[in-house]
């Protein structure tokens, strides 16, 4: 509750004060002349007098009130002053015989404020389609050519493009300008929010507008210059995304202060507040339209990916999608671009732009996102664990997001983030706290931790992916499935194809027939364990994404354990690139039956009825034998959701 604005009245001298349009000013009438028994109050036409009293207290016939300490006098003014002191209030005191003893005068100047409904709208932030509040973008792109980092790291505005990433905040002061010399208007931000934002005041320059930094990490308040002369325009930029200890809400207040006394700041007479929410970083699922595919060129060595690139180019021609091939000198021969970064976006009502999230993995691609992707209207964010200690689970192949889902009546219109982790009760490798805290703090994609630590590399993209579909929920969850693979191989064996051999045409590989694979009890034991791990996730994902068995497709896949952790026995087909209806799938080099790879044939039978087109890409020596596949070696920037994140109900 705002403190009362009280003005002391005296019969010895006139009082002067300022009030805000439509707000109450209480009159301190305790300075009473000796012998006084009653009083009355009169005011000029713009002033409304309010007598606050108990129901049993009544004025006399001549409208005089008894001097009862429980009676309060308040006044309001509903017209902004044109001149200083143009509103007057007179309190006259009378003795018991009705003779006037003394008079107290108050001269008031009224200044304007926001309409009440707008004030209420600005002063709080609520989620949902009927929600309210202002939105702020983290200014994490680089519009200024000479900037060393993101624009938020610069304490000045260097280009007009930079302004477009900011939210406009108007401060309107109405009233005689002379009054604001005595009663200053101060814009201020709480100390807890000051390092999350920066505010620039647009001032008039000789030739061009000047943008003066007035609030931010080292500035908590700013006395408004030229108050009373119309609107003051401010530009607000976010400096920090929501994170652990920061919900994303930032508050600014404008206060009209009492006349300062000597070196002491005046106390607030009235305060208006606006609350902004910093826009979250949002991931995009496979069901969103692809805009650009990134891949690293590796020309040196026996594991060159030139043949892989040719297969990828053919796929992108079908998908009509842009391909960006990153030069080997820029990537320092690091091919695992999916592990290094994740593309997302930020959005406000006035602006949206992509933002790349750089993982703490920090291998050859360590500086690639910062040096080659960060730029005008392309933002950058990263999180590093204390001590820089990372594991394979910190790579972003271990990060995915589902399409929009509804779970037990609760809607997730932007999907749910999936993070690979150990079992909830188990120790083991885990994505670092700094990244997990960041992802959970974005709020709008409600992260879910799944079990991936059973894998040698430990990434979610090794056993699951999502593809678009024309029916049901608009997508299918694909899960790697040893059971489906054994079922397929058993069928082929029973059809007389037990001698069909895998890895035909691949030099230096151990080639096994279907009969040999089915007879390998050690391999079968490994895959029983893997199937149990995947089934644990299957049950979790059905529950947490609201899926049924009809929403899941089992993709044949076998694994082999090394030191109790699993690797794909042949190229991992769920580790695919999804470009609309076009899928770039690791070529499995499975047993050939009737001139066709039986694994490829089975995947086509599963996915083509969904309207999907399957292109199998040879990544065997360029990726698979190095413990990754197509998805690990590519990355996709996708179209943002049409759904606006502020309409989410967390």
Descriptive account of the structure:
Belongs to the protein arginine deiminase family. GO terms for molecular function: calcium ion binding; protein-arginine deiminase activity. It is found in: Cytoplasm. Residues 1-109 form the Protein-arginine deiminase (PAD) N-terminal domain. Residues 123-258 form the Protein-arginine deiminase (PAD) central domain. The protein has 650 residues and is α+β, with helices and mostly antiparallel strands. The protein contains twelve helices and 40 strands. The protein starts with 5 loop residues before the first strand and ends in a 12-residue tail after the last strand. A hairpin with a 5-residue loop joins strand 8 and strand 9. The chain folds into three domains: 6-111, Immunoglobulin-like; 116-278, Sandwich (Immunoglobulin-like); 282-647, L-arginine/glycine Amidinotransferase, Chain A (5-stranded Propeller), CATH 3.75.10.10. 43% of the residues are buried. The strands form twelve sheets. The chain has a five-stranded mixed β-sheet, with no helix packed on it. The chain has a five-stranded mixed β-sheet with strand order 10-18-17-12-15.
């Amino acid at each position: 509750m705002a403190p009362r604005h009280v003005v002391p009245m005296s019969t010895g001298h006139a009082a002067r004060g300022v009030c805000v349009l439509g707000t109450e000013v209480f009159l301190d009438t305790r300075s009473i002349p000796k012998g006084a028994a009653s009083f009355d109050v009169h005011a000029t036409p713009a002033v409304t007098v309010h007598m606050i009293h108990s129901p049993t207290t009544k004025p006399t016939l001549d409208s005089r009130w008894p001097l009862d300490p429980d009676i309060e006098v308040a006044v309001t003014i509903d017209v902004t002053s044109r001149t200083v002191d143009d509103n007057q209030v007179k309190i006259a005191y009378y003795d018991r015989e009705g003779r006037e003893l003394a008079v107290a005068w108050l001269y008031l100047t009224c200044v304007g404020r926001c309409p009440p409904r707008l004030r209420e709208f600005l002063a709080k932030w609520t989620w949902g389609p009927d929600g309210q509040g202002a939105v702020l973008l983290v200014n994490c792109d680089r519009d200024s050519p000479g900037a060393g980092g993101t624009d938020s790291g610069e304490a000045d505005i260097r280009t007009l493009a930079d302004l477009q990433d900011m939210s406009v905040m108007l401060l309107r002061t109405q009233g005689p300008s002379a009054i604001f010399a005595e009663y200053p208007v101060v814009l201020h931000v709480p100390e807890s929010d000051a390092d999350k934002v920066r505010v620039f005041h647009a001032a008039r320059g000789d030739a061009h507008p000047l943008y003066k930094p007035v609030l931010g990490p080292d500035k908590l308040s700013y006395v408004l210059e030229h108050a009373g002369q119309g609107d003051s325009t401010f530009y607000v930029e976010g400096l920090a995304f929501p994170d652990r200890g920061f919900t994303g809400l930032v508050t600014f207040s404008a206060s009209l202060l009492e006349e300062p006394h000597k070196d002491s700041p005046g106390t607030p007479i009235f305060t208006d507040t606006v609350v902004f929410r910093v826009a979250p970083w949002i991931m995009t699922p496979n069901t969103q339209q692809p805009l650009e595919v990134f891949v690293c060129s590796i020309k040196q060595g026996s594991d060159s990916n030139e043949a892989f690139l040719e297969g990828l180019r053919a796929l992108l021609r079908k998908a009509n999608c842009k391909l960006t091939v990153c030069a080997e000198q820029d990537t320092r021969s690091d091919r695992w671009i999916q592990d290094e970064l994740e593309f997302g976006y930020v959005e406000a009502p006035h602006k949206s732009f992509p933002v790349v999230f750089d993982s703490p993995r920090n291998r050859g691609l360590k500086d690639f996102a910062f040096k080659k992707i960060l730029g005008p209207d392309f933002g950058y964010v990263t999180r590093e664990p204390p001590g820089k200690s990372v594991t394979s689970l910190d790579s972003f192949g271990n990060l995915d997001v589902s399409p929009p889902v509804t779970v037990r009546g609760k809607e997730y219109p932007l999907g749910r983030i999936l993070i690979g982790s150990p079992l909830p009760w188990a120790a083991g490798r885990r994505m670092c706290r700094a990244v997990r805290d960041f992802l959970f703090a974005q709020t709008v994609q409600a992260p879910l931790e799944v079990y991936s630590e059973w894998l040698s590399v430990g990434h979610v993209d090794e056993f699951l992916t999502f593809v678009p579909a024309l029916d049901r929920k608009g997508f299918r969850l694909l899960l790697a499935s040893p059971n489906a693979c054994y079922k397929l191989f058993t069928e082929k064996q029973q059809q007389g194809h037990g001698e069909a051999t895998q890895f035909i045409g691949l030099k230096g590989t151990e080639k096994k027939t279907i009969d040999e694979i089915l007879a390998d009890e050690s391999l079968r034991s490994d895959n029983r364990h893997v199937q149990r791990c995947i089934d644990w996730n299957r049950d979790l994902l059905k529950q947490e994404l609201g899926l049924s068995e009809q929403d899941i497709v089992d993709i044949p896949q076998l694994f082999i354990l090394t030191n109790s952790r699993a690797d794909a026995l042949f190229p991992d087909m769920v580790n695919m690139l999804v470009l609309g209806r076009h899928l770039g799938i690791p070529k499995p080099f499975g047993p050939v039956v009737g001139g066709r790879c039986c694994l490829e044939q089975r995947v086509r039978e599963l996915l083509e009825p969904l309207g999907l087109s399957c292109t199998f890409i040879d990544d065997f020596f360029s990726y698979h034998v190095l413990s990754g596949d197509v998805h690990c070696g590519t990355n996709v920037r996708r179209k943002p959701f049409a759904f606006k994140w502020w309409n989410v109900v967390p």
